[in-house]
């Protein structure tokens, strides 16, 4: 029988607080009143349906779109989705979205004057295999300004969304790149407890790097427990 927790419980020392003063819009992104738990109905316990054929190999390659190849440095992002005991989570939908090499999203709300890439949509998805593995081919995203504070720039990052066995089992996080110079002033990164921040940073993977083609980065995602990856309260475009 499918077990659905009524809500995702905050994990002390792992997830960011719901209200973080330095990240100004958190004040608008969490409930002001106690939550009211609703009964789980058919929609919550029978979806999403992600059968064979719905997610294709092409969905995991973000570098090819609209009849051409994206501009920028090709990278391979791969890893495993694990539970708190280190066991693989198979058949889990992993979605990603990101800015292009110039730091711009293909989104009507993104107005900063970096060029759009006609061959980069910035979205992808894949199902984990029986060992919990996933793999994307994409472009290393650029940094971009975002107006949270004076001279604010987001570190290069890729957004991750994970679906479990039902719509109520969705978790969202961000993957950063090692040694990014913008960590010091990024309140989204710094909102996570200090001991947990490293779990949002990928590692360079020479073994996954393909000669004359793409650099490799590994990003394992742990869903719960002491080594859990920090997750966000809501998905958004920052």
What does this structure look like?
The chain has 238 residues and is mostly beta strands. It has helices at residues 42-46, 187-191; strands at 64-65, 68-69, 74-82, 93-97, 123-127, 133-139, 144-145, 153-154, 157-163, 170-176, 203-204, 215-218, 221-222. Strand 7 (144-145) and strand 8 form a beta hairpin. It is globular. It starts with 41 loop residues before the first helix and ends in a 16-residue tail after the last strand.
Would you kindly provide a brief summary of this structure?
It comes from Rhodococcoides yunnanense. This protein is mainly β and 238 residues long.
Task: Label the structural class.
Answer: mainly beta
What are the segments in which pLDDT stays under 50 over at least 5 consecutive residues? 1-8
- Give Rg in angstroms: 18 Å
Report the biggest beta sheet as strand number plus sense, adding barrel if it closes: 5 strands, mixed
Give the helix level as a range of percent: under 10%
Percent range for β-strand residues = 15-25%
Continuous helix count: 2
- N→C terminal distance: 37 Å
Q: Overall mean pLDDT score? A: 87
The SSE order reads HEEEEEEEEEEHEEE
Instruction: Kindly state the number of beta strands.
Output: 13
Shape: globular
Helix/strand layout:
Layout lengths: L41 H5 L17 E2 L2 E2 L4 E9 L10 E5 L25 E5 L5 E7 L4 E2 L7 E2 L2 E7 L6 E7 L10 H5 L11 E2 L10 E4 L2 E2 L16
Parallel strand pairs: 3-12, 3-13
Antiparallel strand pairs: 1-2, 3-6, 4-5, 4-9, 7-8, 9-10, 11-12
Organism: Rhodococcoides yunnanense
EC number: 1.13.11.3
Protein name: Protocatechuate 3,4-dioxygenase subunit beta
């Amino acid at each position: 029988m499918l077990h659905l927790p009524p809500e995702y419980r905050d994990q002390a020392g792992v997830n960011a607080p719901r209200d973080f003063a330095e990240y100004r819009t958190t004040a608008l992104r969490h409930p002001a009143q106690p939550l009211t738990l609703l009964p789980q109905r058919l929609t919550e316990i029978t979806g999403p349906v992600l059968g064979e054929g719905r997610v294709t190999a092409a969905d995991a390659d973000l570098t090819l779109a609209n009849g051409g190849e994206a501009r920028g440095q090709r990278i391979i992002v791969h890893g495993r989705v694990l539970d708190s005991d280190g066991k693989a989570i198979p058949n889990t939908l992993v979605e990603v979205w990101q800015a292009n090499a110039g730091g711009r999203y293909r989104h009507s709300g993104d107005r900063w004057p970096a060029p759009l890439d006609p061959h980069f949509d910035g979205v992808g998805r894949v199902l984990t295999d029986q060992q919990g593995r996933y793999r994307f081919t994409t472009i290393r995203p650029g940094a971009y300004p975002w107006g949270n504070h004076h001279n604010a720039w987001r570190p290069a990052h890729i957004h991750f969304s994970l679906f479990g066995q039902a719509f109520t089992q969705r978790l969202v996080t961000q993957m950063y790149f090692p040694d990014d110079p913008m960590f010091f002033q990024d309140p989204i990164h710094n909102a996570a407890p200090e001991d947990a921040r490293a779990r949002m940073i990928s590692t360079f993977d020479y073994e996954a790097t393909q000669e004359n083609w793409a650099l490799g980065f590994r990003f394992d995602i742990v869903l719960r427990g002491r080594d859990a990856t920090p997750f966000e309260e809501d998905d958004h475009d920052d």
